[in-house]
Amino acid sequence: MSIEVKIPAVGESISSGVVSVWHKKDGEQVKAGDLLFTLDTDKVSTEIAAETAGVLRTIAAEGQEVKIGEVVATIDESAAAAAPTSVATPAQAKEKPDPNRSEAPVSGEKKSPNAEVLSPAVRRIVEEEKLQTAGISGTGKGGRLTKGDVLAAVENRGTPATATESQPAMPKSAPAETEVAVPSESGRFTRKKMSPLRRKIAAQLVMAQHTAAILTTFNECDMGAVQDLRKKSQDAFTKKNDVKLGFMSFFIKAVVEALKAVPAINGRIEGDDFIQNHFFDIGVAVGTERGLVVPVVRDADTKTFAEIERDIADYAKKAREGKIKIEELQGGTFTISNGGVYGSLLGTPILNPPQSGILGMHTIQQRPMAIDGKVVIRPMMYLALSYDHRAVDGKEAVTFLITVKNCIEDPTKLPLDF
Amino acid sequence: MDKFDVVIIGSGPGGYVAAIRSAQLGLRTAIIEKDKELGGTCLNIGCIPSKALLSSSDHYAFAKKEAGKHGIKIDKVELDLPTMLQRKDKVVKQLTGGVRGLMKLNKVTTFQGIGFITGTNKVSITPAEGEAQEIEADHIIIATGSVPVELPSMKFDGKVIVSSTEALSFSEVPKKLLVIGGGAIGLEMGSVWSRLGSEVTVLEFLPRIALGFDLEVANALQKVLTAQGMKFHLETKVSEVKVENGRAIAKATKGEEQLTFDADKVLVSVGRRAFLEGVGADKVGVELDDRKRIKVDDHFRTNIKGIYAIGDVIAGPMLAHKAEEEGIACVEMIAGKAGHVNYDVIPGIIYTNPEVAGVGITEDFAKEKGMEVRIGKFPFAANGRALAADDATGFVKFVADAKTDRIIGAHIMSHVASDLMAECVAVMEFGGSAEDLGRTVHSHPTHSEAVKEAALAVNKAAIHIGNR
Question: In terms of domains, do B142 and B282 share one?
Fold first, then answer.
């Protein structure tokens, strides 16, 4: 019996993704638990494993955009790996003693109650190629499947279709959308289709801008105190906690203090309501090859500096390996984005919807500052807070940023635990 | 003043079909016809009478030439032309009466007279007898059809130099009939009189007859008609036709050659043009295209709000079934529904014997455009039914997309080509492939099996001929 391999629901707002890499080949024998393919969504990459053993028949191609619930492959539990395509005969069905095998071994949906009427050529190809018609879009009248549609589905599966001698040679399997860069004739530009992930992110960004009234307020903070504290405590901290003391834990803790002082930023607008969060899940933006991901440090107010640093280190590793889980990206109430690692001096971050605020950290730059009437060189960082003016007023935004600044410049204001 | 939702000017296939559909959709509908009988050119002086004569003359030719083959001995086969013409008239009368019946059945108000658009939403009707009247309409559909093209060098005189109209009613079989224009009309009428005993010569300007049809089919048809006794001169341009002593002398050039033809009748069938006389389109400012046809958008709307046009009076093949589809689509869209005409699958037929039928892309067009196609052919000489019926002349040819196998063209020469074409159009309408058709059951023994086999031949799977 053939088991359908469907795209699982991976997150509440995710409706589609891309089969980015097949780890097994069409026709290959797989075991339960074997990784079949990588699913890329706009938030995360997930590995999808086989739920049962059998012969894998792939339907979706690498690079193909798929919907949640879409059948992208089947696993034929009964067939041996080198099984030739066989047409079900009554004799064959009878020979199998297994009661579960009462159906014909070929694609089972022929007997489904909603069995669609397939034209003769389509019927033949579906049968010979063991296609699942549910996954193929029809371009014929009334959405019917045409021979061309199913031929294309076979082609895109990466397996050469059984061709009659008169048919032209089947071209190579469809390349992943993102990889085909088309140079212009003059060579002055190259056109490359954006990956579905990129396109999704693009849509989200524009949506954020359209929905919220985003303003940015600036301030700066003197990183000297934190730098000194780090230098002093680093060895002991690292030895005790098996993780280095970075800057992020300070900022996360500072942000928590600021959110406590300005609750309006720790909420979101939903329709006509403003929802006030009573917990502090802080997202930390991490750059990866595929794009930005924002894993969330849960209940940052209750975690220790070490726990926070450990969380961040874990996330960074997972992000590099493309292993961040979707749950780890959801539910944040505020985000911190550090453009400083790339050298940004000052910038206006964009909100991470549906959050009402985002803190932008920037590069630490030695700058001349006026302190007590004298000019001293201090390690300064510009801070930016972009906020949703619908939920947060100017005074609140400024107050938030000043609170962060004060906590950073005087770390004793934070619940230091080392 | 009578007010209507829809008023249609012209009761040919475009007009009367639109009227019926309009009434079905619950719109108050009126139709205006300048002639005494409804049905337009098609019913009165076109499709129907010509097919009646083609059938009758076909039987006559069979009786004379083929009957003996079947063991039917007929002493003397004689032609009673008046009876043949009368039968034709009877058929016409029956059908035009039928259209009038349909108008009554659907409660479409019928006006006799010349319909003239006097202003936005107003049409005046000038009957042959009686007072003129004006009616109001929210939507006016111009369906006034077409008339034969008249060339200045050979003006119609109704007696010697004639159009198809007169050629349907010659009082006696012309000894020599010259046909100028080798299209459907010229070939059909030439065929009729050739079978009835005329010496028919067809002069065609292009290097092939039956423009628009698959070239291989057109050439095959010319061969067959030549064998039936018709003479053809291609690449021949007629410079003038003069009438002297009741007979015609035509001067023509064929390349460098100067040719002269004499004939008792000259049928000028070089095409038809949109007929707009008297409808007042220009008065209200309806825009025309460069071929003096009414310009319309994809909703059949002219540039004047509330005025539409369909059928031969607008661009596109001048075919009754095209006009019918447009009439229905136009009215459906007026009623707020989705109307649609699929111009890719409008077949054309020439009702000679054998008939030729074609729809979609021709093989020569595909070759010219470098399209990647596959061809499947099957001759009726290999079809059991055709052999049994002794009408095995002809073949079926499919043009299919090389990649998707979708049928994009179907071309048939056969005694029953016009009927076989219907299946092909249906499959094409559904985006079907040659394999689909090839795998569909066709009764045995029928001519339609040739259609199945030609479809199989596209993918080199024909059973009853070798696949090359």
Answer: yes
> What is the rounded distance in angstroms from the CA atom of residue A118 to the CA atom of residue A299?
55
User: From the list B402, B436, B461, which residue is nearest A119 (CB)?
Assistant: B436
B166 contacts: CB under 8 Å, gap ≥ 6: B158, B159
Q: How close, in Å, is residue A278 to chain B by CA atoms? A: 55
Nearest by CB: B430 against A144, A148, A165: A144
For chain B, say whether A143 makes contact (Cβ under 8 Å). no
Q: Which residue of A has its CA nearest to B431?
A: A140
Residues of chain A with CATH 2.40.50.100: 2-178
B362 and B336 together in one domain:
no
CATH number assigned to the domain covering A212-413: 3.30.559.10
When CB atoms are compared, the residue of A120, A141, A167 closest to B431 is: A141
How big is chain B, counted in residues?
468
Q: Are residues B50 and B100 in the same domain?
A: yes
Where among B343, B365, B380 does a domain terminate?
B343
Q: Provide the annotated active-site residues of B.
A: 444
> Does the structure's ipTM exceed the value 0.85?
no
Please report, to the nearest 10 degrees, the dihedral formed by the alpha carbons of residues B357, B360, B363, B369 taken in order.
Answer: 150
The answer to whether residues B140 and B8 belong to one domain is yes
B426 → chain A, closest CA residue = A141
Tokens of A255: 């942000």
Find the mean pLDDT for residues B82-92: 98
* Domain with B429 in it: 354-458
Q: Does B461 touch chain A (CB under 8 A)?
A: yes
Number of structural domains chain B divides into: 3
Do B36 and B177 belong together in one domain?
no
Judge whether B363 lies within some domain.
Answer: yes
Task: Verify whether the Cβ–Cβ distance A148 to B404 is below 8 Å.
Answer: yes
- Shortest CA distance from A119: residue in chain B: B436
| Cβ of residue A165 closer than 8 Å to a chain B Cβ | yes
SS3 letters across B266-323: EEECCCEEECCCCCCCCCCCCCECCCCCECCCCCCECCCCCEEECHHHECCCCCHHHH
Closest CA to B424 of B451, B463, B464, B394: B451
Query: What distance in Å separates residue B468's CA from the closest CA in chain A?
Result: 10
Mean pLDDT value across residues B165-192: 98
Query: Each residue of A55-93: pLDDT tens digit?
Result: 888 888 888 888 888 888 888 877 654 444 444 344 443
In a domain, B358, yes or no: yes
**Interface check A137 vs B, CB under 8 A:** no
Residue B237 is assigned to a structural domain of this protein: yes
Chain B residues with CB inside 8 Å of A121's CB? 405, 433, 435-436, 439
Q: Cβ(B114)–Cβ(B278) under 8 Å?
A: yes
Q: Is the pLDDT of residue A112 over 70?
A: no
Question: A2-178 belongs to which CATH class?
Answer: mainly beta
Do strands A45-49 and A35-40 pair parallel, antiparallel, or not at all (unpaired)? antiparallel
Please tell me which residue of chain A has the smallest CA distance to B455.
A121
Question: Any chain B CB within 8 A of the CB of A147?
Answer: yes
> Which residues does chain A have within 8 Å of residue B461's beta carbon, measured at their own beta carbons?
164
Structural contact between residues B366 and B402, judged by C-beta atoms closer than 8 angstroms = no
Name chain B contacts of A140, Cβ cutoff 8 Å: 430-432
**Same domain assignment for residues B139 and B277:** yes
Query: Where do we find the tokens 């060098």?
Result: B153
Backbone angles phi, psi at B105, to 5 degrees: -55, -40
Which of B315, B317, B324, B316 lies closest to B287, judged by CA?
B315
Same domain, B198 and B287: no
Q: pLDDT per residue over A327-361, tens digit each?
A: 888 889 999 999 888 889 999 999 988 899 999 99
Closest to B272 (Cα-Cα) out of B150, B179, B162, B190: B150
